[in-house]
Amino acid sequence: MNYLDIVLGIFLVSAMFSGVKNGFFVELASLVSMLLGIYIAIRCSYLMKSYLENHLSWNPKTVQVMAFALTFIVVVIAVGILAKFFTGLANFASLGIFNKLLGGIFGVLKMVLILSIIVNLLQKINFDYTFLDKETIDKSKLYDPIQVVSKIIYPVIEDWFTAFRSKDFQLETPQKE
Prior knowledge:
This protein has 177 residues and is mainly alpha-helical. The protein is built from six helices and no strands.
């Protein structure tokens, strides 16, 4: 075990404790709200854009950015409210301990996802081993398993980014037939 494993391990243990504290529903909601918020904002911000254009006389690009941000925020808040509701139900049904245990497990999985994205980005900028030397990476017990997750997740995120970028903040309202 080297210093890279210690740093990655600290993040994973911290995520486990945070997950136990928050519980499964809140941990799940935090991940779902981010992903769902981005997805719905990409697909549906044109509705908010139409509303804002009718009430504001701002630059169209500014309106689109605001529409995206507001749509994202609404989704995150709505999912958060649902998470609190389900946490309350779990506690009421005496499932609190399972909620906490699953929260710890899910917290670690969520952190692995986040670390995999960071490891993927690090790998792209560390091509000449400026930040981390090859020996440290090769001897690390956690680096490779986390990197495997990034190879699965990265194409999905890249597809979402491409879809978002292709819209170029110019999402159009669907035509009525």
